[in-house]
Every structure is written in C-alpha cells, then in structure tokens.
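Shift notes (night). Ran Phenylacetate-CoA ligase while the centrifuge was going.
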Amino acid sequence: MTDSGADVTRLPRTELRERQNSRLQETVRHAYENVSFYRDRLAAAGVTPDDVTSVDDLTKLPFTTKEDFRDNYPTDLFAVDMEALVRIHASSGTTGKPKIVGYTENDLARWQEVMCRGFEAAGLDTSDTLQNAYGYGLFTGGLGFHDGATAMGMAVVPVGGGQTQRQVELLSDLEATAICLTPSYALYLAETAAEMGYDPAELPVETVLYGAEPCTEPMRAEIEDRLGATAVENYGLSEIIGPGVAAECRAQTGMHIWEDQFYPEVIDPQTGDPVGEGEEGELVLTTLTKEALPVLRYRTGDMTTLEYDTCDCGRTMVRMDSVTGRTDDLLIVRGVNVYPSEIESVVLEFDGVAPHYRIDLSREGTMDRLELTVELAEEFDGDRSALRKSLLDRLSNVLSLEPDKLDLVAPGAIERTEVGKVQRVYDRR
Ligand SMILES: [Zn+2]
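Came back to this:
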C-alpha cells in the first residue's frame, strides 16, 4: 500500500477520491471490528460499517475527541494487540493523563513516507543535512522528523531541543542546510547566534521547517529575515500520526494535507456542522490507513480553512491555512472574542517591536483585565510613547481590544523557551 510520494501528491482528484472512499470503508470496518469504543459509538449512532461507502457518509459518524483518548487511557483505542506494535508515543499531558498512541511496522513506514513528501515539498533532497531541534522521546516531533529524514537519505543531526549555543556551533560547523524546530525557538536560536558573534543570516541553513506552535505570517517573515532562509510550515498531531499530516511546499500558500492518508473536514466548532468550502472552522481528521490506532473524525481543536484549487507546485492535495488558533485558545476579553495569533499579527506590524510578547489576563471583581507586554526591537531608537499610542490605536481599530496596560520592555526582557512549546498567554481568571 505504499505510494511513491511524487506521484500520489499529484493524483487527479477523482482518483484520489476513489482511493479515499475504499480506504475509509476499510478503516471504519477495522475500527468497528477491533475497538469496542467505536463499536459502541457507531451502534449508538445507528450506523454499521456497511452504511459508509464513501467520504460523503462521514457525517453519519460521531466525532472522536481528546476526552475520548483520556477516557480510554492507556491503550483502549488500539485496534491491534500489543505484540503487533513496534512503537509507542505519548502527547504531553499538561492536564490529566497523556494521550497514548501506538504504531505497527506499516504505520511507521507510512509515517516516514508522509514525512518524505513534506521534505520533498520543502525542496529538500538527499544532499541536504537536517538538524533536528525537536525534542526526542515520547513527543512525536523528534523521532517523526528523524525517521522521515533517515528514510529519505538525508544526514540527520539529532540535537533535540535546548542546548542552544551548541545548536549554533553544530549548525555552523556541520553546515546543516535545513533545520526543524518551533517558530519561537527559531527566533531564539537566531538571537543566541547573534550574541555569540555570528551573523544568523550567514549560517548555512537555507530551509527552516517550523511547526508545533501557531505562527502568523509576520512571525514567519521575521524567521526568514533573521536566519536568511526560506521557512515552511509543517502540521501534525500525535493522535493522528505525529508530524507529517500536512506540509507546506515552496509556493508557501498553505500546507498540503496528505489526503490519501488523512481525510480532512472543517466544521463549525459550535454546531459540529460542515462549513462551506474556504470558510474557517475546526479541522477534523480521519485516518485512512492507520492499523494500530485508526481514528474517526478527530476534533483537532485547530481553526483553519481549506483550499482545494491546484497549487502552483502542481500538487493536487488540499492545502490548509496556518492554524489561526485552537478552539480552546480563544480568549474572551470583556465580551470581545480574540485569538492570541490576531494580537500577534497586529503587534508585529510595527517595525520597532521584536517578535516577543506576553498576554496576561486576570479578573478584578467581575471585570476582565488585559495586560500586554511587548518587547522593543534591538534597533528601536524612536519615541516610545508614540509607538505605544499607535499600538493601542491599532489594537482598538482592528480587534476592538483595549488593554488595561501596555508595557514596552527592553530587548531580551521576556523569557525565552528553549525546550517545548512557548507560552505567551497567562490566563489567571
Ligand atoms: Zn504546493
């Protein structure tokens, strides 16, 4: 069932649809026959595998949620015996139990294959050296990228997260042409390189593969500018496979979802109904080939839109927009709905501002209180109060947001994250 990456990503959509339909039927049957959770859920919805003959029937099926993973901890969602597994990962459980995910040998092979498609889309080949700055271990990021790059034949430098000065020295000495990491860490790496006396833009990195955190276009531009590289986004989540669900090509117009493996829908997070084509909503994914852990209609919590027209690169597979926010990240401040990424976009419009900020929310009596702290750019030598006023005006005009406090702080004043995901929002309400 392996496909050559180059061909399958350019399949005519009618052929792709046939493949999706037959794989969906197999997946639903596999889940129904081997996972009691799905057997019960489908029974409760009055659906049998025979009722699902094409992706148009998906809406008959109930959603799977992250709570379902937690309720079925550790391995009750697995569709194979433990002997059939060759790998187990877990998502970071910031609250409660982690989500445990498992892979058969075929699952690992497909994971490598989708990673290779992403590398190809990013313009990488066997002559590239990839420095992997994602954390190894239970987190899927490190080993996902590592195995994919190895399968493709790139040289991998498995540094993992942290040790930033060492990362910079290795990048420079081993001449890695590509690096994979979170967007906030890419900026921190550039900063550290500058402190060490390097010109970050002169480092050998030509391609930055970033992901695992939301990243706005102005943030991407900062990364490209500072590292003198092309930055492309990657998307994935452990519950579906890990990294490798979707990857951006050099056209930089959204991430191609590898649709022959993962079927995407976009729904209204409130009603659960599908939204119209090109409209924003919550991404829902169904695995089409997974053996150990088939997942039907998983609510990712990630807000995005899908573009179905053929990309400039010639690939026919749908593109998803950079994730604008997670349904559980939505901030409601005095009745105004806003995603942290929207605040980021506004803040980074200003040249005098560095791409580092934090949002503090608290409550005074019954009133929300919003404090925004923004770092000044190293080169800023203008009028602080004028910058402050323009920022406040812009936040008010674009987002109807009026912070109770806006602090402009010195470069480097906001704490950096070396390992794991950056935290920018502190909600103490
Ligand atoms: Zn493309």
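Confidence is low (pLDDT under 50) at residues 1-6. The pocket of zinc ion is lined by residues 249, 251, 256, 311, 313, 315 (CB under 6 Å).
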